[in-house]
Write a structure and sequence with these properties.
The protein is built from 9 helices and no strands. It is an all-alpha fold and 185 residues long. The N and C termini lie far apart (47 Å).
Length: 185
Amino acid sequence: MPDLDEQSLITAAQQDLQLFDQFYLRYVGRIFAFAFRQTGNRELAQDITASTFEKALAHLDGYRTQGSSPAAWLYKIALNEVRKNYWKQHLLRPLHERDASPMDVEGTVQASEQNQLLWAALSKLSNSDRQLLMLRFFDQLSSAEVADVLGCSLPNVYLRLHRALGRLRKQIDRQKVEGVVYVSE
C-alpha cells in the first residue's frame, strides 16, 4: 500500500481493520514518547500506549474528522490515559532531562548547559503548562491539534501558550541568576 496521509490511512483502517497496524506503526513511538515524558516510567508508558491504541481500535468506527486530525485524536486518548493513571497512582512527577524519550534523538544527543537549564525550568512549571508546551513543541502538534487534545478553543491555546512561554522564560532567567543548573541524580 502506498504511503498514505494520516487521514487517508485512518479512513482506510475504518474500512479494513488489517490496515490499523500501519496507523499504529506510524504513531506508536510518538505516543510512547509522550506517555514516558509525562510519567517518567517505562512500564507505565507502555501500558498507557497499549491502552491508547486499544481504545483507538475499539472506537475507530466512531472517529470523524470534524476538524480534528487523527494525531490529535490519539493524543487526546493518551492524555486521558495519563490523567486516569495520575489520579489512580499519583505517578506523574517533575520532568528531568534524563526523562527525554529515546524518540527525542536531537534532545538527547546534545546535553548542553542550555538544555539542562531548559529541562530544569520545565520541571518547575505546572503540570498544565508542561503538558501544553510538550504537546505543542516536543510532540509537534499544531495549535489546532493541541486545542482539540485539551478540549479548548484555538484562541485559548494561543493565550495559554503565550503565558506558559512567559513563565518558562521567567524560570530560565531565575535559574540563571541563582546559578542553578540541573544535575542528574
